[in-house]
Structure formats: C-alpha cells, structure tokens
Design goal:
This protein has three helices and no strands. The chain is mainly α and about 70 residues long. The N and C termini lie far apart (about 30 Å).
Length: about 70
C-alpha cells in the first residue's frame, strides 16, 4: 500500500466507499473507518499503520494546499 488509491481499495474490500465532496472531510472519514476496522480486529497492525500514515500525509498536503490559495 503506497497511495491514497490503495487505501480506498482497502476500504472498498469491506464495502466502504467514501465520497463527501470535500477532500479533507473524505480523509477524516477514511481515518475513522480505518480506526473502526482496526478496533474490530479486521485489519492487521501493519496494514492499519500504513494506511493511517498515507491518510495523514494526504491531510497535511491538503491543508498546505488550502493555506496557499
């Protein structure tokens, strides 16, 4: 897993498709869904951590993009 698309495909395996229309809100919801899957012991620790790192990086980039313009 390397990209946000990979995280979306992981969520899709569990029937979770996230699209609110606001990228930052989408990322927040993906983060919540991943946390729920991890707490339900459906995701392995490494898979969860990797997905969360990707989402946090995307959130940081989105916030920087919004601050610039």
């Amino acid at each position: 897993m390397r990209t946000l698309y990979d995280v979306q495909q992981l969520l899709k395996k569990f029937g979770i498709i996230v699209y609110i229309g606001d990228r930052l809100a989408d990322l927040e919801l993906m983060e919540l869904e991943l946390r729920e899957l991890y707490q339900a012991r459906v995701l392995e620790n490494r898979e969860y951590e990797t997905a969360m790192l990707i989402i946090r990086q995307e959130k940081r980039l989105e916030k920087e993009k919004r601050n610039r313009g």
